[in-house]
Amino acid sequence: MTGMPSDDMGTPREDAAPAEGAVPDAAPSADAAPAEGEVRDAAPAADAAARYVYGIVPADDTDRADLGDVGLDGSRVRVVVQGQVGALVHDCASRPYDGAGTTVAAAWVLAHHQVLQLAMTRWGCVLPMTFNTIVASSEGKTADENLLDWLEAENASLRSRVDALVGKAEFGLQVSYLPAVMLRQVAAEVPEIRRLEEEAKTKSAGLAYFTRQEMERVLRREMEGRVRDLFTSVYERARACSDRVTIEKLKNDGSDARMAANLSCLVVLDRYPELEALADEIAGHEGQTARLVGPLPPYSFC
Amino acid sequence: MTIDIDGDDLRTGLVGLVVALAEIVKETLKLQALRRVEAGSLTEEELERLGQALMDLDDAFERMKIDLGVTDAVQSVRDGLDQAVDDLVTTLIGAEQR
To answer: Of A85, A146, A174, A213, which one's alpha carbon is 20 to 30 angstroms from that of A260?
Structure first.
C-alpha cells in the first residue's frame, strides 16, 4: 500500500482499538502520532490542526461536501477535494485516538464505520482508510497542505481504485456445521463404517479395539473430506456471483458448531440476491448454518 | 499490561499442559503399535494383549483428565497447538502462492 498516510491499513474493527488494560500512554502505531506520552481523552480537543481521514470518494459532486456532525465524537465530517477524488475528513488533534480500555474505543470504531456506510449511500462507493488514519502538519506545511499533496500525488491511482468499487459492496459469508450431525450422516451413509461396526461386535475386546480404531480413522477421513468439499463448493459458488472473494481465517465461537468457510465477497449489488440464495441453500442442509453480513464498506478490497 | 495469576488457574493450566503433552506421546506410541499391527507380524494372542493394553491406556488418560479436572485445559492446549500448526501451514502455502 504505497502513498497512504498511514502504514497501518487494516480493517477498522473493534480489535483495531488498543487492548483493554494496555498501558494508557502507549500510543497506537500511526505515522502521524507526534505527541508521545500524551493521552487523548474523549472530549473534543481544542487543538484541531490535523485531519482524520475516513476514506476516499469520487469528486464528481461537490454539493455534498458536508456530511454533518456524524464523525467520531460527533465531529463534523467534510470532503476535501483534490482533482478527481475527495477525502472524507474531520479536524482533529495531531495524535491518535486512544481508547485504552474504555468503551469509547468501540464507539469510535462504530462511528468510523457509519461514516463509511453513509459515504457508500451517497457516492455509491468509498475506499476505506483504517481507523486512526491521521494526516498531521510537518516542516512548514499544514495538515491540509499535506493532505492535498498526498491526494494530488496519488490522484489517478486513488480514482481508479475508487472507480473499481462503484456499485459494489462487501459481504461476509460464514458457513458452519455441527460435527455431531455430520458424524451421524457419515455413519449412516458410508457402508465401510457399518461393516467395521458389525465386525467389532464379533471380536474379543482386544481385537475389537483395532477394528474400532480403523473405524475412527475412516470416520475422520470422511469428515475431513466433507468439510473440505463444503468449503470448496461454498468458495466456488461465492466466486461465481462475486467480483472478488478473499478467504478469511476460520473462527470458532466456543459453540458446538465449527466453521468451514469464512469469506469476504466483493459483490455487484445487482447480484446480491444470488449470494443470498447461496446462503439460504447452504443453511437448508441439516446441521449447516450460513451467516451473511453486509452490505459493508469494502474493507477487504481496498 | 498486568498478568493476573490465580493459584488454581496456574495449577490447572500447568497440569493441563503436562497431560496434553503426555497424551500426544501416548498417541505417537499408539500409532507405532498400529503400524506393527498392520505389518501383520503379531500373533492373534499378541494382538489381543496389545489391544487390551492400548484400550486400558486410553481409559486411564480419560479417567486421569476427569480426576484432575483438566479435560477442558488439555483440549485447549491441543486446540492451541492445532491452530499454531494451521497458521504455520497457511503461512507456508501463502508464501508459495505469492
So the answer is: A213
In tens, the pLDDT along A148-204 reads 999 999 999 999 999 999 999 999 999 999 999 999 999 899 999 999 999 999 999
Cα–Cα distance, A145 to A141 (Å, whole number):
6
Q: Length of chain B, please?
A: 98
Q: Is B51 within 8 Å of A208 when comparing Cβ atoms?
A: yes
- Residues in chain A within 8 Å Cβ distance of B49: 206
Q: Provide the number of structural domains found in chain A.
A: 2
**Please, which residues 29-88 of chain B have a Cβ atom closer than 8 Å to chain A?**
30, 34, 37, 44, 47-52, 54-55
Beta-carbon separation of B51 and A19 below 8 A? no
Confidence of residue B97 (pLDDT cuts 50, 70, 90): low
The reply to whether residue B49 touches residue A205, judged by beta carbons under 8 angstroms, is: no
- Is B13 inside any structural domain? no
Number of domains in chain B: 1
What pLDDT digit, counting tens, does each position of A204-254 carry? 989 999 999 989 999 999 999 999 999 999 999 999 999 999 999 888 777
Q: How far is A216 from chain B (nearest CA, A)?
A: 13
Chain A CA closest to residue B4 = A21
The answer for residues whose C-beta is within 8 angstroms of residue A298's C-beta and 6 or more apart is A125, A126, A127, A128, A165, A168, A169, A170, A266
- Maximum C-alpha span of chain A: 88
Cell of A148: 492535498
The letter for the amino acid at A91 is: D
What's the whole-number mean pLDDT along residues B5-17? 82
Domain's final residue, options A166, A183, A212: A166
* Contacts with A277 (C-beta within 8 Å, 6 or more apart), sequence order: none
Residue B89 domain-assigned (yes or no): yes
Encode pLDDT of A258-298 as tens digits: 999 999 999 999 999 999 999 999 999 999 999 999 899 99
- Complex prediction ipTM: 0.77
Contact B51 A206 (CB under 8 A): yes
